[in-house]
Amino acid sequence: MTDTGFTPDPGAIPDPDAISPDKVVVVAFADDAKAYEALATVKQLDRDEQIDLVEGVVVTRDEDGRVHVQDEAGDHSLAGTASGGLIGLLIGILGGPLGVLLGGATGLLLGSLWDLDDADTTESALGEVSKSVQVGRNSLLAQVIEQSPEVLDTAMAQLGGTVVRRPVYEIEGEIARGQEAQREAKKQANAKLREARDEKARAQAHAKVEELKSKLHLDRKHATTGS
Questions:
Q1: Number of Cβ atoms within 10 Å of the Cβ of 9
Q2: Is the Cβ–Cβ distance between 140 and 38 less than 8 Å?
Q3: CA torsion, points 155, 159, 162, 165, in degrees to nearest 10?
Q4: Residue 191 scores a pLDDT above 70
Q5: Mean pLDDT over all residues of the chain?
Q6: Long-range contacts of 182-191 (CB under 8 A, 24+ apart)
Q7: Is the model's pLDDT at 104 over the cut of 50?
Q8: CA 213, CA 225: separation in Å to the nearest integer?
């Protein structure tokens, strides 16, 4: 990821476009073919130095909620550039199954982004991005550095696209908080397991003592009877 050297002020909440030029954008289209044109367009804008395209890919969501890279339809040279960066990570997170670790080896327990309601998505950057990748439709998912949103907005509007953008630091912040929540959940689960093991051990010890006491009582009874 390109380092812009920008550090946002946590005490201020201005327009996201004024906070940081480093964005994650999702562009939805009524015509699926336009998503490939859009990717070609952002690559051209990058070559023209109007924006800096860090990563970009055409994706779609299936009926099960999983997100797939469209690497077989259209021109393969336009399939995308997502790799091991933020966009590649997002594809795993946004398309993760319900209630399980999302993003594979990243170990992120973020819950079901796809099931967030409209009120939740306005508060969650990941939720808003996720909701913009619709079932059965192609979308452009990209990380760009832009000094002004007008360049990309104008280009995507010409293709009939609707642009949603969130600052990268918001996306990364939510991912980090999700990972921390996963760690905390694991700690709590381990603590409960230890507690259960301790209770089991105490119960087993108590049962063993009761068994020995019972055996001792029988031995004494037999000794008394024999005398």
A1: 8
A2: yes
A3: -30
A4: yes
A5: 74
A6: 182/101, 182/107, 182/108, 182/109, 185/109
A7: no
A8: 18
Residue 148: Cβ within 10 Å count: 11
Q: Does 111 reside within a domain?
A: yes
Domain membership flag for residue 224: no
- Tell me how far apart the alpha carbons of residues 147 and 44 are, in angstroms, rounded to a whole number: 16
| Residue 192 falls inside a structural domain | no
How many distinct structural domains can be found in the chain?
1
With respect to residue 55, please indicate whether it lies within any of the assigned structural domains. yes
Domain residue limits at 22: 16-181
**Per-residue pLDDT tens over the stretch 76-85:** 444 455 556 8
As a whole number of angstroms, the distance between CA 178 and CA 180 comes to: 5
